[in-house]
Amino acid sequence: MKPIILILSFFLIFSCKTENKKPDQPTKMQEVIAIHDEVMPKMSDISKLVAELKPMADSTEAGMKYMTAMKDLQAAHRSMMDWMQGFGSRFDSDEILNGKELSEEKRTWLLEEEQKVIQLREDINGSIERAETLLRED
Question: What DSSP character marks residue 92?
Answer without folding.
Answer: -
